[in-house]
Write a structure and sequence with these properties.
alpha/beta, 627 residues, single chain, six-stranded parallel sheet
Length: 627
Amino acid sequence: MAFVKGAWRILVAIKDGLVLLFLLLFFGALYAALSWSPKPAQTVSSGALLLDLDGTIVEQPAEVDYLSMLSGSGPQAREYRLSDVVMALDAARTDAKVKAVVLNLDGFMGGGQVALTRVGAALDAVRAARKPVLAYATLYSDASYLLAAHASETWSDPFGGVAILGKGGSNLYYKGLIDKLGVNTHVYRVGTYKSFVEPFTRTDQSPEAKQANQALAGALWQNWLDDVAKARPQAKIAAYVRDPVAAARATGGDMAKAALNAGLVDKLGDEAAFGDRVAALSGVSTSKKPGAFASIDYATYVKARRPTNDGQIGVLTIAGNIVDGEAGPGTAAGDTISNLLLTALDEKDLKALVVRVDSPGGSVMASEKIRGAILRAKAAGLPVVVSMGNVAASGGYWVSTPADMIFAQPDTITGSIGVFGIIPSFEGTLAKMGITTDGVRTTPLSGQPDVVGGTTPEFDQIMQMGVEDIYRRFVGLVAQSRHKSPQAIDAIAQGRVWDGGTARQIGLVDRFGGLEDAIAEAARRAKIDPKSARVYRIEKAPDQWAQWAEALADREKDKTDAPRDMLARQALLQRTWAMQAIDDVRGLVMGAGVRADCLECRSYGAPRPASKADEQGLLTMIASLWH
């Protein structure tokens, strides 16, 4: 008995110690957050503006999740706002304190082609002002090289090179697994090319989807090649990507030397040698670290030059998947975005509205809620101009239909005018375990949708007719917006995805141009001088917790885990399949009802690497299925 009492006291002491430790950590974090305040803008010293892009370039960064960050399960890749990067480069062009611009792309994970092309144009403007732009990476990817090609001097590590893969890749198809598990997928759709449901109904792409996807990939790839060739004429890029084996064989497998011989890079050297070269242009740093140079911190530079948010041209950003309800930045939640816009219309003296769309779509109901709020702006007399980013397809096009004018870029992915719904039922799965269902009905729709007993023919017919009705409404909205007949829109709809160049030819967009062009057009329509027009960003201001988490992430920035060789880098990029699998399963089981979503689009936006929590969730799901 004495032994049991002693053991019990030890367990209680351990419990009390753990509780005390947790409370100390909690209140310590709470005190740090409450006592923290944003630092005032620091004086920017002279040197090279360093863009150490260890993450992705996005239209609207998501808030840093401080809880995930403290637990060590949050996403590792950072997100850089496109407009901030462009603003910083534009300021550096005329800033006497900026002696050069340096791109460190070792940890760069990419961004949509429209975003990268815009950054490339800003780099060209810096070079036109006779300021050097230097780029460094151990190994360049398609995305990082699209930026590096615009540099006046491009370096690679002797053990690195340039690994250009081109457009294309694989999607996951779950039909075999679904059949094995006995799951019955009930699909309701309209659109010959609406391929979002194909992973659940086929083991491969349909011929129609493959034809459309090949045309899209071909158009974007040709634009990529043209941009690189124009930015770096000395690069023999066409021959290099056409036969990479020959390029590697000519140097005995030395990919760095192959890139140098093809004119893709100017110099080979490690990071210290590159730093010494920058120091010769920008000045020497007081740091004793090899290759250190006088540099200007990007985050500090942006904060010191970010304009006040008090203009008369409202800019509403619709970025990420369109979902019902509320969500933070980086996700286009119907309630959140519509409420933000309606509040701005009520409280601010806005004269025009620019809607920046970078979304593959999602929930029809959320898309319609956002569209309704934009219509309120039009009803108030505001000109509405849409600016399409990397992706404005399906639900992303739905929310664009109120526009007086639509701007896009040749690399924009748009269209995908089609809708679908999908419901799984598990009567076959339960039958494999010897479980059956039975019950009573008073109507053909009693208990529907019955995910354990299966759907009735009457329910399936009503669902299909409902999807067809929403498709007709979608086509009607586009026809009214584009001043065409529904028949003409139906011919280019059917769920097909188009590149921006083709979309302009068939009338889905009006002009080529970026966000700045859309703002200038909105100002002209509001009879405001475009040169003096100021914007008001209609988005949620980050709270104190989010600012604290972001500052903490800045201080703990560490690139030691960044992959440096081809196999390691591609392995990291391919981890996105884990995120795709989780999103697909979540969409199948818990997705919004009728959706206007785009399967192809997610391959061309800014990648979202899987976090530790995502990977753990996938492993748990696989283990449960295996057992």
